Amino acid sequence: MLYIFRQYTFDNSFEHVDFSNKFLKEYQIALTFATDSDEFGQPTNGIFRPGWDLAKVTPEAIKRFREKAGSMGVEVKVFICIGNRGNRGNPFINRDNPFKILDRDAWIVNATDSLTRLIQEVNLQVDGIDVQYETIDASADDFIHCVRGLIKNLQDNGVITVASISPTFSLNKEFYPPLYTSVPFLFDYVDCQFPKQLHPIEDPTALLQRYDELTQIYPIRKLLAGFSPENAEPFVFFLRVMDILHKKNAPGASIYYNHFYAPL
């Protein structure tokens, strides 16, 4: 049973997805990306700007999708992703800027204020923040301090109700596991990004073993399996997802694909 499905997107392609409540209980739209850098790629110390298509991802588009999903008993949650992931295919952000801070306490204040203002201005009824920095140019201690402070502020202020992290298991070991274990109650989901492994896994058996490794850090009830058909054959992608969902009882999966029209 696929309970949760998350689509990472910078446009309104979610409006073209067909799904059934027989397989789905919650659809998550994760908007890519809000970045804390300027148009020249220079760090802004926590002042975030939107990087998705503001002309397509509108309050009206989100409302239509919520109504469509709601009529079938499927809940919709909207996340804003903060971070970077190469941004291939996204014409609105053409740089892959690392997490970098100039002053960590000022970063928390700036990030809290700028994301609060951004969420209010886009008026999309945002539910949560997803943290997906693939490249990090900071110490683990600074990264953990800043992200933890930001998410706690946004939740305490009622700006968001849910939060997630999306680590790349092979690349981010020193950052995300200690972040999660320090404040597990702050994060409702952990979306592991399998396509970005240092050594891509093509064997579904090996993928299950890797998922088992992750369950030693994160609880299965929170652990989504993240894939990208842009980096793998569709058959391999769906085979991987089905294996994890059926054999490991995972709560759901995500897809990093900006034009996903297949039925669910």
Automatic annotation (TrEMBL):
Keyword field contains Hydrolase: yes
A Gene Ontology molecular function term of the record: hydrolase activity
InterPro entries: GH
Keywords assigned by UniProt, alphabetized: Hydrolase
PANTHER family registered for this protein in UniProt: CHITINASE 2-LIKE, RUBISCO-ASSOCIATED PROTEIN
The protein's name: Glycoside hydrolase superfamily
Originating species: Vigna unguiculata (Cowpea)
Taxonomic placement: Eukaryota, Viridiplantae, Streptophyta, Embryophyta, Tracheophyta
